[in-house]
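User: Sorry, folds how?
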Amino acid sequence: MDKQQPLLSIGLILLGALLGTAAHVSAARMSEYVWQKRPLLLFVPSIADSRLQQTRHNLQRRRCELDDRNIIIGVILEQGQSRLDDQPVSPSDASTLRKRYAIDRVQFAAILIGKDGSEKYRLYDVPELDSIFALIDGMPMRQDEMSQNPVDCSEQAQ
């Protein structure tokens, strides 16, 4: 039994290291998008919130324009499974995001994060996508993107 004790200890240490690494990667998720994507974070009390349903409907109709602007969607729920870019977000990471952006648990808010990682736009109602697109399109980085890779979403708009 003395021979198994060191192996068990090593196994527990390795397991702890792996779990610690997984938690770190999850907590750092937002930093993965810096200079790559523009997260649009939707903070919502619950999945049944009518403002979330309206926003999702609007987003689905404008998928090409979202993709063209490298916008990813995060739905941060107070109750239920939060997601960022279709990946699950742990309850502790959702809470961290709420604290980082000072959003109360019962508040609805839409926050656009720029490719530089800073907050660019905040609204406490269903976001108007044309306003968000105009804001993004006026940014120097977006101007470069449009000149290097123009995309026509007019045929896909409904």
